[in-house]
Design a protein that fits this description.
Elements: H1 3-13, E1 26-29, E2 39-42, H2 47-55, E3 60-63, H3 80-90, E4 94-97, H4 100-103, H5 109-116, E5 120-129, E6 132-140, H6 144-153, E7 167-175, E8 193-205, H7 209-219, E9 227-231, E10 235-251, H8 253-263, E11 270-271, E12 279-288, H9 293-298, E13 303-307, E14 322-325, H10 328-332, H11 335-346, E15 352-354
Parallel strand pairs: 2-3, 2-15, 3-4, 12-13, 13-14
Antiparallel strand pairs: 1-4, 5-10, 6-8, 6-9, 7-8, 10-12, 11-14
Helix pairs in contact: 1-11, 6-7
């Protein structure tokens, strides 16, 4: 088992192409080829977490929040980031982070919050755009099936809860092979060739388009495979920020806050004035979610649960929704469970441990 194997399992679930532009997902410290003795999972990495990893026989730490966001110009121990990096390097401990790439997954951070709150009929609150492509290719009738199957196996044709989706049109293709070509059909340097073909149309996403194109070429018999890959403006309903769903039973606002406090294991909740309606539809966003307030209102949510709202941002609720700020750490504390599920599924007989320490830098005096 290597660092690279652990990373591959996590990035298959949460492809790094879906991280936000400001983020720094990936291997922060360590050698991808290093053998792993055990993995310690935490929300953040601190000096205490590195010490815990060493004491528990783990030489890899998997976290949600990246340690490094900006350039490191020196390692003198002046800052906590420098000290953590130095400690990890000296102990030969690798550090890997999957942050907004995991936030943006349908089964990621917000799905885990929704699960804790028992929400039903959930969907992504703000689906991403610009990550879907329509792929068209053309194949002779005899091999169209194998080309289509190869593209499906590489991840093409997935639309929400449906897989192997395609549209197929029979038509006639023509080509004339140059004298130095090596055509499967027709004759090099000969006349124009006419062939009955099927036009295959499938949807691909940003993270699998290269694999699909490679599978298409490998399964095809033509020397030159004709295709078009066209960016779409469609929203990717399975990828994006936040989540919205329904409580099993509507609750009065105070009852809802008590339920949220219990389920999310938080010490207190900062909130806006209650509206005059019960809480039924719930929007959530792990971490700092104030940028999604308008989306939550547009989705008809009665309450928006997240962290890190600033004073003046609470006014933006404007009586249309209840903002419930439960804290950044509190909203993401169950993220470690996602990493644990991914790694135990892929490596069932390997040492995968959850940290015993809280890395929450915010303390409450109540």
């Amino acid at each position: 088992m290597t660092v690279k194997d652990i990373i591959s399992a996590i990035e298959t679930f949460a492809p790094p192409v879906y991280q936000e532009s400001y983020d720094n997902c990936g291997l922060q410290v360590g050698d991808p080829a290093m053998s792993v003795t055990g993995v310690l999972i935490s929300l953040d990495v601190t000096e205490a977490i590195v010490d815990e990893a060493i004491s528990r026989g783990c030489n890899m730490i998997v976290v949600h929040h990246p340690l490094i966001f900006s350039g490191i110009k020196r390692l003198t121990g002046r800052t906590y980031v420098e000290r953590i990096i130095t400690k990890a390097i000296k102990a030969d401990v690798a550090i890997f982070a999957a942050h907004t790439s995991l936030d943006n997954m349908m089964q990621g951070v917000n799905a885990r919050i929704a699960e804790k709150l028992q929400l039903t009929h959930t969907r992504i609150l703000a689906p991403k755009q610009g990550i879907l492509y329509k792929l068209y290719t053309y194949a002779p009738l005899a091999i169209a099936g194998q080309v289509r199957d190869a593209m499906f196996a590489a991840g093409a044709g997935n639309i929400s809860r449906y897989s192997e989706c395609s549209f197929n049109t029979e038509g006639t293709g023509t080509f004339r092979a140059a004298a130095d070509a090596n055509p499967t059909l027709g004759q090099a340097g000969g006349e124009r060739h006419t062939e009955a073909e099927i036009k295959i149309e499938v949807l691909v996403t940003a993270h699998n388009k290269n694999a699909v194109l490679a599978a298409m070429r490998a399964s095809h018999t033509y020397e030159e495979v004709a295709y078009e890959l066209i960016p779409l403006a469609n929203e990717a309903t399975e990828i994006g920020a936040g989540m919205v769903g329904n409580l099993p039973t509507p609750m009065q606002p105070q009852e809802a806050l008590a339920f949220i406090k219990k389920q999310m294991k938080c010490d207190c909740i900062r909130h806006t004035t209650f509206t005059d309606r019960p809480i039924s539809r719930v929007a959530v966003c792990g971490g700092s979610g104030s940028f999604l307030l308008r989306d939550a209102i547009a989705a008809g949510a009665d309450i928006f649960i997240t962290g890190d709202f600033k004073y003046h941002q609470f006014f933006d609720a404007d009586g249309r929704i209840v903002i419930a700020d439960i804290g950044h750490y509190e909203s993401e504390q169950f993220t470690s469970e996602i990493f644990e599920d991914i790694l135990k599924k892929n490596f069932p007989n390997f040492a995968i441990l959850l940290s015993d320490l809280s890395t929450n830098p915010v303390k409450y005096f109540c």
